[in-house]
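Troubleshooting entry. The earlier prediction with adenosine-5'-triphosphate gave an output that would not parse, so I re-checked the input for stray whitespace and re-submitted. Clean input:
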Amino acid sequence: MKKLLHLMKPYKWTAVCAVLFTLMNNICVLYLPGVFAKIINKGALMGDMPYVYKMGGLMLLVAVLSGVTYIASAVFASKVTSSFARDLRRAVFVKAQEYSMSDYQKFGSASLITRCTNDITIIQRSFMMILQMLLPAPIMAVVGLVLAFRTNATMGLVMAAIIGITGGIAFSIGSKAIPLFRQLQVKMDNLTRILREIISGVRVIRAFHREKYEEDRFGSSCKDYCDIAIETNKIFAVLLPTLTLLTNLGIICILLFGGVKVSEGMMQIGSIFALIEYLTIILFTVTMAILVFMEIPRAQSCGERLSEVLDLEPEIQDKKNALAQDSAQTPIRAQLEFRNVSFRYANAEEAVLNKISFISKAGETTAIIGGTGSGKSTIANLIPRFFDVDEGEILIDGVDIRNLSQKELRSRIGFIPQKTFLFRGTIASNIRYGKEDASDTEIIQAAKTAQAHTFISSMEKGYDSFVAQGGTNLSGGQKQRIAIARALVRKPEIYVFDDSFSALDYKTDALLRKALRQEIKNKEASLIIVAQRVSSILDADRIIVLDQGEIAGVGTHQELMKSCLAYKQIAVSQLSESQLKKEVV
Ligand SMILES: Nc1ncnc2c1ncn2[C@@H]1O[C@H](COP(=O)(O)OP(=O)(O)OP(=O)(O)O)[C@@H](O)[C@H]1O
């Protein structure tokens, strides 16, 4: 919570202004009943019209002042709360950007979205209500009561009793809503998670005709949320009429006691109106303050959820003395080495990689092949430090990657993930994502190497063609080639292709590999290819065969055909006779 409060610091004076203007507004509001009483007692009842006009003018002036101070308080309060919410959102976003993949898994993406949107909105709204309603309430109640006592001491006591009873009843009813507010947040998380899954999986849902099932699943989650929301609203449904009833009872008490006082000549009739006004204003203020008070635990639980995000120390962090030197200064270039690397996922019982060692040098292609779940993608994900190894070392250009800053490390890598992801924008903007300042020529060159230039040029708007979120308006192969161009445009030292040719036809696959071979020779880069298809890696300098997280064989295609049974089985199942002999494009 400390970090949250710290974010409020820059706006403390704006917050003070908001409270001061609210107080001024309240003073104006409380001043009016007294003037009103005087108009009746000294003006209307005495037939003194000039006094009525004078005090009427004063009343108008105070009413205008009240309006102006209210606007000023609302503007300041909104400035503080909106700025605070903006800063908080930014802080949560920046923090989430620092997370490792395991850190993301701890929260889940749906919960992170709810925290960054809904939770912050609740805090912002509560903060606004605290500034405008809760903080000025005690002063308002005290000043109102003093004015009531000044009007008539006995009536002041009657009013204090009414306010105490009403406040107590309102609090005891309203406090029942507090635990429900907490539950609402959890239900909202659940709802967002399901909605996100349904929207992103819409094609699968339609293909398998599971609309009804998903409708029920979403409906049931909505019902859960709705049930709690109804319970909460039931409490407020009881609370609000109860308060209206208590206010009216209070007014009747004032009329009864006040009527007696007036008939005894102890009080003037105008004062009864003033007392009724004081009571209404104070009860309204106290009621609002109690409602805000009910909201605080909800905001508090949102605050705790946000603090969890802000306080989490990212699993992967740069060392204090992390190297950030330009890769051009290192003596070795484009060399990747795995040295006895073992790794286990945080929530898994067994290691997925055991004692993996290999070296891939500049200009070389190292391919990784193996059965599903053998750990190929895990190897690819360890290179840019999406996860950290448990044992052993990964070295780039002879330096342990944990000694490099993450920025430096990732600037040396061109990563093409297994699941292609494109951003909403144009083809050019997606390729430029790899290098912000890439020129048009660089973009076209990268697209040519990635075998994407031809299909991009055939599109009506070429490189300015629209790409929908996630690249859903492009084919799998087109998306993969744009993702490859995005990595190529960086001109990194090490390319990591995590099964990134799977959606390409054989001809494009072959042309792409040929262009890539040329690319790594020219740029002195090395290529790591995770593949399912043996035909994609026949010409690799080194093929690593993985079997259940362990290296079952290393060598060229021909060497492995002789020495590695696991590889031979994969190759025989995929290649024709002539290909088996060795195919070089
Ligand atoms: N984030 C994760 N958390 C826990 N376990 C994981 C995670 N990602 C992968 N695994 C597990 O690690 C093992 C290796 O997964 P990996 O994705 O590296 O295999 P792969 O060889 O690339 O498979 P495929 O060819 O099917 O993509 C699998 O058993 C998988 O269930």
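This one parsed fine. The pocket of adenosine-5'-triphosphate is lined by residues 345, 347-348, 352, 370, 372-378 (CB under 6 Å).
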